[in-house]
Amino acid sequence: MIASLGFMEIGIPQIIMILLALFLGYLAIVKKFEPLLPLPLAFGIMIANIPIAGLSAYDEGGLFHFLYQGVSRVIYPPLIFLCIGTMTDFGPLITAPRNALIGLGGQLGIFAAFGASLLLGNLLSPIIPGFDGFSIKEAASIGIIGSSDGPTSLFVAGRLAPDLLPSIAIAAFSYMALVPFIQPPIMRALTTDKERRVVMPPVKHATKKQKIVFPIALTLITLLIIPSSGLLVAMLMLGNLIKESGVTNRYIHSLQKELLNILTLLVGISIGTSATADRFLDPKTLIIIFSGLLAFASGTAGGILVAKLLCKITKGKVNPLIGNAGVSAMPMAARISQKLGQKYNHSNHLLMHAMGPIVSSTIGSALIAGIFIAFLS
Q1: Amino acid 7: pLDDT
Q2: What is the pLDDT, as a whole number, of residue 6?
Q3: Host domain of residue 115
Q4: How far apart (Å, rounded) are the C-alpha atoms in residues 375 and 368?
């Protein structure tokens, strides 16, 4: 009878994970750091690390085992992309395609984390007992954290490094919540006071025809050239076509609200219940967390440097502060551009200008994810 009590089996690793869960819960409830995902994530970590309860994603036959199949079999990420597509306006990208270059610069974070994880793995493997470094598949999965796009990180890790999926997911979504703290210091450090005060002209409006043709054309091009990226891109573009067609308003409401909220809850609780102490408390996790921070910082810097270059080329028509939107943290990065731009010049309205780099970064990271999967799977 006593042996069946959970507290008789609990050890230091489980206690550490429960404390981590409580900390994430504190960030969600008290600090309100993007609480929709961290709250179920924290609760999932907590219950998965209670011994004997059988509430982890690895307890076969249990509810959370079946819910986790949506993550491990890469079902949830494309559905989330479908929902995101209904919330995305490609107009700023269509009318100012040069801003796609900023999104390209933001992909620097992917390759920085990819290289850093391989390098650190090689350096630390002789020092840490039982640690053999990262395979190239694992490094690629860690690198996608730099996309600043949680669903894409899940998509790649589920295909290439399922054992690292909990650590990668927690790092990716945690840093997404911390974007308002990570990006502003980098933005200030890499721009001058004069550059921050640049006022951009109003965003041009794309026609309805352009907005309908764009998702169809991009889907066809992607499927023909990089078919391994087709699932994510196609679902994103289908969602956008539903929005722009103007004939499926009932779908729009359901996808933007009910389905997206349900998927966010399922992803949070599924990842949480997969983060058991024996899988999470590993040297690899610390390296993943460090690489994730490097990825976000490098992606932000890459986008800003490209934006600075465009500012010079256009003779002051591009405010480099929109460079932080080179990472696809939608819409947080655009809000940061707007907030910082307003701080230095009240005439600045950068929100919609920043949406162009963000959506191009979302597409770019999906394409890079497809390339990794095509070459490494």
Answers
A1: 60
A2: 54
A3: 2-376
A4: 11
**Contact predicate 86/239, CB 8 Å:** yes
- DSSP secondary structure letters along 267-295: HHHHHHHH--HHHHSSHHHHHHHHHHHHH
Other Cβ atoms less than 10 A from the Cβ of 347: the count is 9
Confidence band, pLDDT 50/70/90 cuts, at residue 35: confident
Q: H/E element holding 333?
A: helix 332-344
Please name the amino acid found at residue 124: L
**Dist. CA 93–CA 203, nearest whole Å:** 10
CA distances from 212 to 240, 254, 305, 367 (A): 8, 20, 32, 21
Structure tokens at 301: 């810097």
As a whole number of angstroms, the distance between CA 246 and CA 261 comes to 23
Token pair in block for residue 47: 């219950």
Q: How far apart are CA 331 and CA 359, in angstroms?
A: 10
Cα atoms in the 13 Å half-sphere on the side-chain side of 175 = 32
What's the rounded Cα separation, in Å, for the pair 273 and 94? 41
- For tokens 């429960």, name the residue: 18
- Report H helices in 31-164: 38-48, 63-72, 76-85, 91-95, 100-105, 108-124, 136-143, 150-160
The closest of 328, 309, 329 to 319, measured between CA atoms, is: 309
Q: What pLDDT score does 63 carry?
A: 94
In the chain, the number of structural domains is 1
Q: Which residues 6+ apart lie within 8 Å of 246 measured at CB?
A: 208
Which residues, in sequence order, are CB contacts of 171 under 8 Å at separation 6+? 145, 288, 289, 291, 292
User: Do 75 and 81 contact (CB within 8 A), yes or no?
Assistant: no
140-153 pLDDT tens trace: 999 999 877 889 99
Considering the entire predicted model, what is its pTM?
0.91
pLDDT digits (tens, 9 = 90+) for 155-212: 999 999 998 988 898 888 878 777 888 899 999 999 999 999 999 988 889 999 999 9
Task: Give the position of tokens 């004997």.
Answer: 52
